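Per reviewer request, we include the raw input and output of the structure prediction for the construct analysed in the revised manuscript.
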Amino acid sequence: QVHLAESGGGLVQPGTSLTLSCLVSGRAISTHAMGWFRQAPGREREFVAVIGWNGKTYYTDSVKGRFAISKDDLANTLTLQMNGVSPEDTAVYYCAVDKHEYGSIWIKTPKESDFGSWGQGTQVTVST
């Protein structure tokens, strides 16, 4: 059984940094793409970033140059480094794992349906 657990959320001030982590059990992330999504209050969940099994990355335009997705295959952990956050980044952040091994969902904006398992989310609030 696949289990994903996000951590690292909290209340931060605009312009600061925050690091989110996602510990995965039951599936090797070395062979699966991993993604981050977020859902702001009153809005639909949206794609943030994806990293392929090969380490290739793809970001939504609004976070390019500010956020960095990475992974540690040995620790089976996914990370999202968030720099220069703004109130518009306030949301619940979810990690998710690709349904398929060695997929290529990282070459463009993936769909939620590309992912087979999700974490329960971690709240990030950016406010003064």
